[in-house]
């Protein structure tokens, strides 16, 4: 690759590595960049570059520049701070995300849904939706952290027709995050040649990512690949998982995203609309909760707060959650809880 002072990367220290290439810290025109380096023989087409050039959205990682030499193709991309899976690594793992807390989960969902809606609006299918391809971008201004969630890695993306479908030359991606129609194709490879891909497969995988976030880094359908594949194909979600989803009002929208038949799944546009209804239900649920003074009120409110409800929601007498906390605790403990809500 020709030397150019406007761009560079440190090939000795990879930020990450996948099946198709490595990512390094670099620079492009004076700003830090993530440089994805892919061996030329692994690139069967220019789908990733074409997709990124079509996409312009705050919830999608930006491509600054690309070039290639005899051995590699290089993508100079917007540098982010971590991927979603790093949030849930053990505290002693050096790769664990140690930045500021993520936005409320409903806001993370909304950002992911808006990004996917934009991808589909450009007649593209991502085909590799998973936590590792969800990036976290932190920008700090005047002691305020602006956190944006972005889709990345469009190496498997494809163009689709006006119905949102495309021909498949094979089933690619990461098995634990496959929609059931793709898992069934894997079980019967003979049908792969006739198969068609659909944007609705992205919708199912997005539902899995939503669930992963709600369950603090656990998969909706199990703890290992065998269990996950079996439960997805048999449409069996563990009962404790279903209860958790009901508690946070996520069962309805996820139910529509995780339909076994892709034709019955909602679109990415309807996910955006559905999330607004989910937020309204959360607020309503909180109003009911704060009318019940109980010893576990603090933990319940913390749980709903993390999901994204309005802590200032009031009951019919004009009292919010903190009023009820004051009623239950007449000690210094309430001061600590007020500090929690003020600065969390």
Explain this structure.
This protein folds into three domains: 79 residues, Phosphorylase Kinase, domain 1 (2-Layer Sandwich), CATH 3.30.200.20; 197 residues, Transferase(Phosphotransferase) domain 1 (Transferase(Phosphotransferase), domain 1, Orthogonal Bundle), CATH 1.10.510.10; 54 residues, no CATH class. 38% of the residues lie in helices and 20% in strands. The chain is built from twelve helices and twelve strands. The strands form four sheets. The chain has a five-stranded antiparallel beta sheet, covered by helices on one side. A three-stranded antiparallel beta sheet has the order 6-8-9. Strands 7-10 form a two-stranded antiparallel sheet. A hairpin with a 2-residue loop joins β2 and β3. The radius of gyration is 22 Å and the shape is globular. The N and C termini lie far apart (47 Å). 33% of the residues are buried. The C terminus is likely disordered. One of its GO terms (biological process) is intrinsic apoptotic signaling pathway in response to endoplasmic reticulum stress. This is Protein kinase domain-containing protein. It comes from Daphnia magna. Keywords: ATP-binding, Kinase, Nucleotide-binding, Serine/threonine-protein kinase, Transferase.
Question: Topology, pairings included?
Answer:
Layout: E1 7-17, E2 22-28, E3 31-39, H1 47-54, E4 63-68, E5 72-78, E6 82-83, H2 84-87, H3 105-121, E7 124-125, E8 134-141, E9 144-151, E10 158-159, E11 165-167, H4 180-187, E12 196-198, H5 199-214, H6 225-234, H7 239-247, H8 251-257, H9 268-289, H10 297-307, H11 321-328, H12 333-343
Antiparallel strand pairs: 1-2, 2-3, 3-5, 4-5, 6-8, 7-10, 8-9, 11-12
Helix pairs in contact: 3-5, 3-9
């Amino acid at each position: 690759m020709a030397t150019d002072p406007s761009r560079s990367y440190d090939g000795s220290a990879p930020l990450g590595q996948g099946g198709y290439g490595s990512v390094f810290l670099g620079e492009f025109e004076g700003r830090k960049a993530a440089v994805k380096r892919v061996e030329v023989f692994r690139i069967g087409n220019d789908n990733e570059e074409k997709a990124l050039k079509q996409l312009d959205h705050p919830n999608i990682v930006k491509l600054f520049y690309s070039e290639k030499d005899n051995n590699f193709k290089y993508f100079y991309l917007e540098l982010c701070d971590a991927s979603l899976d790093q949030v849930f690594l053990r505290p002693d793992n050096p790769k664990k995300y140690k930045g500021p807390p993520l936005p409320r989960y409903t806001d993370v969902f909304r950002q992911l849904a808006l990004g996917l809606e934009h991808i589909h609006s450009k007649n593209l299918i991502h085909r590799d939706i998973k936590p590792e391809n969800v990036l976290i971008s932190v920008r700090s201004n005047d002691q305020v952290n602006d956190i944006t969630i972005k889709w990345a890695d469009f190496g498997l993306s494809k163009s689709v027709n006006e119905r949102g479908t495309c021909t498949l030359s094979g089933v690619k991606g990461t098995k634990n995050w496959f929609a059931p129609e793709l898992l069934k194709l894997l079980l019967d490879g003979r049908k792969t040649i006739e198969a068609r891909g659909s944007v609705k497969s992205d919708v199912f995988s997005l539902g899995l990512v939503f669930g992963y976030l709600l369950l603090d880094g656990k998969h909706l359908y199990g703890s290992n690949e065998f269990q996950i594949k079996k439960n997805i194909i048999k449409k069996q979600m563990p009962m404790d998982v279903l209860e958790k989803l009901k508690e946070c009002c996520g069962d309805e929208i996820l139910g529509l995203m995780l339909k076994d038949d892709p034709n019955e799944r909602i679109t990415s546009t309807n996910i955006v609309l559905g999330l607004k209804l989910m937020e309204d239900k959360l607020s309503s649920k909180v109003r009911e909760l704060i009318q019940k003074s109980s010893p576990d009120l603090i933990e319940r409110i913390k749980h709903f707060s993390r999901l994204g409800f309005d802590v200032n929601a009031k009951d019919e007498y004009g009292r919010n959650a903190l009023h009820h906390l004051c009623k239950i605790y007449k000690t210094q403990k309430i001061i600590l809880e007020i500090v929690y809500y003020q600065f969390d």
